[in-house]
# Entry
Amino acid sequence: SQKIEQNSEALNIQEGKTATLTCNYTNYSPAYLQWYRQDPGRGPVFLLLIRENEKEKRKERLKVTFDTTLKQSLFHITASQPADSATYLCALVGSNSGYALNFGKGTSLLVTP
Amino acid sequence: DSGVTQTPKHLITATGQRVTLRCSPRSGDLSVYWYQQSLDQGLQFLIQYYNGEERAKGNILERFSAQQFPDLHSELNLSSLELGDSALYFCASSPSGGAWGNTIYFGEGSWLTVV
# Structure
């Protein structure tokens, strides 16, 4: 079966450090991978999309890598701030969902001053 | 504000009852997706409609059904409710027929509590 796995344990880091979140997937052959941010009780918000032929993508303090050989994406937030505290979700289009996105369970990030 | 509107925001109902959740997609978006989020299961895809037609089906129970109307708003009907149906239900929309390479935009969700 298709799986999207993200670290279930919360990641606690100090303000100013780089946060690195991992997304591993099995039984997908994705052409695209997406990352979303979700605050408690709110809807997920799109952050970045990376294509299979892109090794890396950046947007301001965010960087995503995509390794289709390792079946892994890494999501980095540099110079992290307390406002970056949220849950970050990895998403792929799955064969069991037609053209809709399947999401990982997310990793909770807490940035402390 | 994503432009996706969901009502009601909160709903408390008893087991065995039926509820309807409503979603208005972003202006111009043809696809509507429904997701269920509970603490232990994460965000689970239920069903997608595109321009009034069912496009994809995920882990949707037979007690649940959905439809998309000509004005593109959508409703998710949940019947014979059980305690385990308590969750946050999200609607999302996108311009095209799928999320393949496209962003989808989420509403703020409808909190359903079954007591």
Q: What stands out?
A: Chain B has no helices and eleven strands. The longest strand of chain B covers residues 42-50. Chain B has a mean pLDDT of 94.
